[in-house]
């Protein structure tokens, strides 16, 4: 018989899966399980909320421990970001999931919000702007986390900017250790890494190069080649 956390995840995913976004069920389960393992009354910070797909998953897990989720997203105009109308969809989806009392929206760039932030955090999920500089800055939010706290990075091994940021900032870091991934969603934890932890990051590079090659083929409209050579089905970038 499924245990309570499993049933809670299934209920959360049943709602979240209907919300547009780039999050697989395996990735949602990783977000949920790591959040569900937090101590009482945790404060989770999500960078990049879009229409609320991952927010619903995180908030459902946080509610079980009397916690809250701070969703950081500026909702800027643009094809990938959606603009103000995306904020309306986000708020509507959170209300429909009956999680409005758990989610605190901070409509701001993460890089602008971070310098003035003073609250302790228990969990960090990074899925903001996928360039080297923003990812490098977003990793600084981890300073507000205790030892052992989870830091999750989406598109970690599928975005060039994000991967380069991880190689430059996390691989040599003495404060973050790599644990595992679900697709391109990588789980790090606050703590001193071992040589094995660093090697795990390096071992992901072939998979990252594969994903970059798939992206190039899709841009060249060679979807059939991507499917035949790399087994990538569908028109979307690997995530």
Integer count of domains: 2
Helix content: 40-55%
**Total E-strand runs:** 7
Q: Helix count? A: 10
Highest-level CATH class of the largest domain: Alpha Beta
- The neighbouring-strand order within the major sheet is 3-2-1-4-5-7-6
Main beta sheet: strand number and arrangement? 7 strands, mixed
Structural category: alpha/beta
CATH superfamily heading of the largest domain: Vaccinia Virus protein VP39
Percentage of residues in strands: 5-15%
Order of helices and strands: HHEHEHEHEHEHEEHHH
The assigned CATH architecture of the largest domain is: 3-Layer(aba) Sandwich
CATH topology of the largest domain: Rossmann fold
Shape: globular
Distance between the termini: 32 Å
Q: Rg from C-alpha positions?
A: 17 Å
**Which consecutive residue ranges, at least 5 long each, have pLDDT under 50?**
none
Mean pLDDT: 93
Labels describing this entry:
single chain, seven-stranded mixed β-sheet, 239 residues, 7 strands, Rossmann fold, alpha/beta, 2 domains, 10 helices
What does this protein look like?
With 239 residues, the chain is of the alpha/beta class. It has 2 domains: 4-193, Rossmann fold, CATH 3.40.50; 204-239. The protein has 10 helices and 7 strands. Strands 3-2-1-4-5-7-6 form a 7-stranded mixed beta sheet. Helix 3 (53-63) links the parallel strand 1 and strand 2 (68-72). Helix 2 packs parallel to helix 3 (53-63) and helix 9 packs antiparallel against helix 10 (223-230). The protein is globular. The model has no long low-confidence stretch (mean pLDDT 93).
């Amino acid at each position: 018989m499924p245990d309570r956390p499993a049933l809670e995840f299934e209920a959360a995913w049943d709602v979240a899966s209907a919300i547009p976004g780039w999050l697989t069920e395996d990735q949602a389960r990783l977000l949920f399980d790591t959040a569900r393992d937090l101590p009482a009354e945790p404060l989770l910070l999500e960078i990049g909320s879009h229409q609320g797909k991952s927010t619903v998953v995180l908030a459902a897990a946080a509610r079980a421990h009397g916690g809250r989720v701070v969703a950081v997203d500026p909702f800027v105009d643009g094809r990938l970001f959606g603009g103000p109308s995306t904020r309306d969809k986000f708020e509507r989806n959170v209300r429909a999931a009956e999680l409005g009392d758990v989610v605190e929206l901070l409509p701001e760039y993460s890089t602008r919000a971070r310098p003035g932030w003073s609250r302790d955090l228990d969990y960090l999920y990074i899925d903001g702007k996928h360039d080297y500089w923003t990812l490098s800055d977003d990793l600084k939010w981890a300073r507000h986390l205790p030892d052992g706290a989870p830091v999750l990075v989406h598109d970690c091994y599928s975005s060039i900017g994000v991967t380069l940021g991880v190689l430059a900032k996390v691989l040599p870091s003495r404060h973050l250790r790599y644990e595992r991934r679900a697709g391109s969603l990588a789980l790090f934890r606050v703590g001193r890494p071992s040589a094995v932890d660093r090697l795990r990051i390096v071992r992901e590079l072939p998979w990252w190069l594969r994903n970059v090659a798939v992206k190039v083929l899709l841009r060249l409209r060679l979807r059939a080649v991507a499917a035949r050579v790399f087994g990538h089905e569908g028109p979307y970038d690997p995530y």
